[in-house]
Amino acid sequence: MPRRPGAGVLFEDWTGGGLPPLLQHHVHPQVASSAKTRTAGGRRQPQNPGDQLCHVVSKVRPSKTYSGRRAVEEHCYMHHSTQLCHTIIDSNSISCENDRWIADETRYGSFGFVDFLSNTISYTGEKHWPDIIMGHGNISTYPWGPEDICPGGLILPILDERLWPIKVRVVIYLFTLLYFLLGISIVADVFMTAIDKITSHTKKVYMAKELSVNGSSVSLRPDQPEIIEVRIWNPTIANLTLMALGTSSPEILLSIIETVGHHFEARKLGPNIIVGSAAFNLLIITSLCTLSLNLNEKRRIHDLKVFLVISAFSFFAYIWLLLIIEVISPNVIELWEAAMTFLLFPILMFFAYATDRNWCGKKIEHGKHQLDLSSVEDPEEMKNQPIVNNGKVHKENLIKFVKTVKKYPGITDADAAKLAATKIIDSTHHGAMWYRIGAVRHFTGGKRIEPILEDHLKQVYNVIKKENNVGDMNEMSLFSFKDEQKEYSVVEFHAPTIAVKENIGKFPVTIWRHGKLNTKATIRVESINGTAKEGEDFVKVREIVEFNENEEEKEILVEILDDNKWEPDEEFFLRISVVHHKERPVKLGSISIMEVTIIDNDEPGIISFGKRGLLVKESAGFVEIPIVRTHGSDNMVSVKWKTIDESAISGRDYIGGEGEIYFKDKEVAKMLRIEIINDMCPEKDECFEIELFGATGGAKIGNINRIAITISSDDDFDSVVDRLMLLTHINIHAIELHRQTWVEQIKTAMTVNGGDLDNATTLTYILHFFSFFWKVFFAFIPPAGICSGWLRFITSLALIGIIATIIGDLATIFGCLIGLDDIVTAITIVALGMSLPDILGACMVTRAETHADEAMIHIAGSIAVKVLMGVGLPWFIAAVYHYLHGNVFHVPSNRIGFNVLVYSVMAILAIIVLMVRRNVGFFGNAELGGPQKGRYITVVILISLWVVYLSLTCFQTF
């Protein structure tokens, strides 16, 4: 590489005579030969006796002027000084980190110095001190050769890279940096599972039946338990300590290790990564959360007080940094300032806890004492709780849920169990950390944290959620037909299943409306892929259907594509969804999803029952009996039915009778509904039968023309429920955050999707391939079940520290190779790379939760914790170290001050934007989402603020 004026190389006094071979081509031949002229003892006599280095030093002058306490060391061009430092090596590059180190080492070493400007050589010292080459003001531990263009770090480089092509080094460092960013994301996932284990610990509390409080007697209700389990960790404290540390640990540890590893001196990379990450989280991730929601969908912060308290603390922390760097003691961090910065973190925890406990809110009047049993569940409320309680499946709620999903065609027990597991995960409150773990596993091809549903199961689940007010499914009540007859228009398909020939072309599908008919109703009909695919087997359906007043039926046309190839029977699905309108109350009926089967048969068909027998619980209220039409579906046909009493009597145990079922052209399944009477008396199983007869339209009666309906008592029905509970537990266990043994961990790490190969895609395999090494390597970390998760916590934290150190070295060297300052590298490449899991996790939690609290409070909390721990803790450690050694801790303001100032301004503007969104209807009166124009304006503003932040910081740096 071309030499800059004034550049030189400091090298070991080579006792073999002459210059090392790698230096000879840089020096004039006459100068090189003079290196062989030495006095006894292998040392050349300096021309100026008494000088530590010879006259060559006096020809080198610094290109910058410095002021302050260390000016002598930074202007160490005086050849009679022992503080010669880096100015000798490169007059155009002065680095304050190196002067103290060189000054210490040159007192004991013997060095030769080659000055490329004057082509002269000089020696100093009396002892042989090996393995040092200095170049361009940076340290690199090489025995010989030209100086390296970039500084070495705490660990890297581990090979001699000086003669490697720059482009090759850039590519290697870039991909290595990206790979280690992937690795630190995965080990942070492991670290957070340990935190989840620790914070989920509970303890048993034994409650007395009567308590005396200030003379007043307080009693438990008879239905309240005497022993309860309560969580040890307060959720707010857990979020701000272990959980925030989990998501921010790479940045915090990098900042600490960088400071301690460089002799407790202030560095650029760590603190600026924290500021850059804060800007990225607040401006970019908030924008992406807004875009992640569906059109007109919005999320509003529910607990605004906690958000404002945490945001105020994070903002004050940055203002405090500006004050101590620029105003109170410029360029110096005194011990009390560092201590105050670090103590802001426990102060934040105190105020957040006080806000969470509402200490400043309404107080209980004296004498009106209340026993705090917030952890005790009310038995009446228990009925409306999710399917799982304290880690155990709640049987009654599971039964209600299964009855609901069984209304839909083709739902097996295994499907019901998978839907129940999904419901359990969906109804359990999850923090941002849980979603971040899921995000990391998603883009590394790892084990998912929630069940993966097939398309038709996903549609069934979505329909059930809508029937229960968008996710509020704690009360799994059945479809109330009579109430909806009075208040709603009920819309559903005429049949749950139809079959058509592949060459049919277009055929009609009937949609039936009943209930309230004196209003208009608007619905949407969409197609869903099954084994038949849109564009290949059928034309995509996405149609708006409007019912006029008193209109009961509508038909839509569906087109089948004939590819003239033999194929087995294939199916796809049609789904009805409601287009909401205030003046048109509409609800979906039980047949809101229709299965369409493409077959090769043109007969009227054979009609029979789908099963020979059905078991129904007496308290179920009704039973639906499937009647199927096979071996053809042409023309309209019908079949008659009647009930036959056995031990169950019509009018006492069930409502029987007779009737006729009609199959329209292409319809292949119908449901016969019989009401069951619950007489609330203990009795044995009772049975009745239903018979099919009198088929018309050319159809025939099949072999299963009778079905036995057994009304079961609750005790015998438990065996069926137990099987469903077992299946549900299996599904839940498959998606647990952590495994209990090393064998389970390694097996899960080595398999795609954690072993769920059925739902693995090509992309999943690719992601698994790239992350395979990291997943297997981290699988050897102790499982969370050992030592209550603490051993896993400590081990993974240590690995995060090691990997963060390597990332710091990689980022510094990579930035140097492409000409970027550490500040620019920190706020761009590293900040974005370390924030990638936060992007995916924040978007997931925004879509999944009903409020914006988890996303926005986590962003604000993460920013606060990063600055207070990632800057406050290393600065406090360094300040204590320097205080004990009789000096002070220097932090030049140009290393972080301007960056903090620009971020603070952008943060204020961003918070103003969020508060305006909350209070202006144009933006939807919510911080996230809302109408299309409002959300796009918000995104443009926030992204523009981030671009301005980057631009100003980069311009100031260069």
What does this structure look like?
The protein is of the alpha+beta class and 958 residues long. The chain folds into four domains: 8-149, no CATH class; 177-362 and 761-957, A middle domain of Talin 1 (Up-down Bundle); 379-476 and 720-754, no CATH class; 484-716, Sandwich (Immunoglobulin-like). 42% of the residues lie in helices and 18% in strands. It is built from 24 helices and 34 strands. The strands form ten sheets. Strands 15, 17, 18, 20, 22, 23, 25, 27, 29 and 31 form a ten-stranded mixed beta sheet that branches. Strands 24-32-30-26-28 form a five-stranded mixed beta sheet. Helix 5 (166-199) crosses helix 20 (822-848), helix 7 (269-292) packs parallel to helix 23 (897-919) and helix 13 crosses helix 20 (822-848). The radius of gyration is 37 Å and the shape is elongated.
